[in-house]
């Protein structure tokens, strides 16, 4: 839509909307006759599965191609990462059998979440423009940072919660876990209150676990969108005006580069924090009260 005027608010609002319907790339029409996806963020689901699969494949390749001799740079980097995750898991979870599962789980979480977060470093209009070209649809919706979607972040946190419950039952038995739910922390005389407090603890830990990741990545996404607007209306997805303000373009490049460099720390730190909290919560499931 050449010449269409789009405000900054419309630009940001557009980029914060998720794809919720399948697009027929041959006709540019939603395939509503196949299924109703109106309650599913298809872009977040697609990129989270794709990036998790890529992360697991990279780890698998690193494991299968490792040699006993002098390691190359890539192998040395992966060995340092694996050793770091394993040492952290050992410091939190004392059960050796549990660590055989939990440590690889934590490593997979860290790598997958890091890759999801790293999608924020791509130009904000790059993949939406490609998707728009494929579908032929103006104003095509496409969010590419899965962890900036609350549904994905909470789904990851719920996965950790389920793992905690599984290990609570495995370590203590179902009866022992139920006994703990009704007797800790105030004793059997306050069983209903104990149970309610324990349920609230599970809920609060899960919600805070997911919200922490979502909040930081959502804020980072907003900053990148604001930086994109520094370059002027040319930065929008659906048109490029004839005139380009060179001063704002320079600010756009400088601010984008500075924030991207700083954001590398954020995306790594958030992946680490999510993994560390997963270890802590699973470790608490091993404790007897």
Give an overview in words.
- The chain has a two-stranded antiparallel sheet with strand order 1-2.
- The model is unreliable at 24-28, 30-35 and 233-244 (pLDDT under 50).
- The termini are far apart.
- It is an all-alpha fold.
- It is globular, with a radius of gyration of 23 Å.
- The protein has eight helices and two strands.
- The protein has one domain (8-286).
What are the main properties of this structure?
289 residues, mainly alpha, two-stranded antiparallel ribbon, 8 helices, 2 strands
Taking all residues together, what is the mean pLDDT?
A: 85
Compute the number of strand runs.
Answer: 2
The helix/strand class is mainly alpha
Please report the distance between the alpha carbons of the first and last residues: 64 Å
Topology pattern, helix = H, strand = E: HEEHHHHHHH
Topology:
Elements: H1 8-15, E1 23-24, E2 29-30, H2 42-64, H3 73-92, H4 96-118, H5 126-135, H6 150-183, H7 191-230, H8 246-286
Helix pairs in contact: 1-7, 2-4, 3-4, 4-8, 6-7, 6-8, 7-8
Pfam families: ATP-synt_A
Subcellular location: Cell membrane; Membrane
Transmembrane segments: 45-63, 101-119, 150-169, 218-240, 260-282
């Amino acid at each position: 839509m050449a010449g269409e005027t789009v405000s900054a608010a419309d630009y940001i609002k557009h980029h914060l909307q998720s794809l919720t319907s399948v697009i027929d790339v041959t006709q540019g029409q939603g395939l509503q006759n196949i299924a109703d996806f109106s309650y599913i963020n298809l872009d977040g689901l697609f990129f989270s599965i794709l990036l998790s699969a890529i992360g697991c494949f990279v780890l698998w390749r690193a494991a299968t191609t490792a040699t006993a001799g002098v390691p190359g740079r890539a192998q040395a980097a992966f060995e340092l990462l694996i050793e770091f995750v394993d040492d952290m898991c050992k410091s939190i979870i004392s059960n050796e059998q549990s660590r055989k599962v939990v440590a690889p789980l934590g490593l997979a979480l860290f790598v997958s979440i890091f890759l999801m977060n790293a999608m924020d470093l791509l130009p904000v209009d790059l993949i939406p423009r490609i998707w728009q070209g494929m579908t032929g649809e103006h104003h095509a919706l496409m969010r590419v940072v899965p962890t900036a979607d609350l549904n994905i972040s909470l789904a990851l946190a719920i996965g950790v919660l389920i793992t905690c419950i599984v290990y609570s039952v495995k370590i203590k038995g179902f009866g022992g876990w139920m006994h703990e739910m009704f007797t800790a922390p105030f004793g059997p005389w306050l069983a209903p209150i104990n149970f309610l407090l324990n349920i609230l603890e599970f809920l609060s830990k899960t919600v805070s676990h997911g919200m922490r990741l979502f909040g930081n990545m959502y804020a980072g996404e907003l900053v990148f969108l604001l930086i994109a607007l520094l370059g002027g209306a040319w930065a929008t997805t659906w048109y490029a005006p004839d005139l380009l303000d060179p001063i704002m373009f320079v600010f756009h490049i400088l601010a984008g580069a500075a924030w991207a460099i700083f954001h590398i720390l954020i995306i790594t730190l958030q992946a680490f924090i999510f993994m560390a909290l997963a270890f802590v919560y699973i470790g608490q499931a091993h404790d007897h009260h």
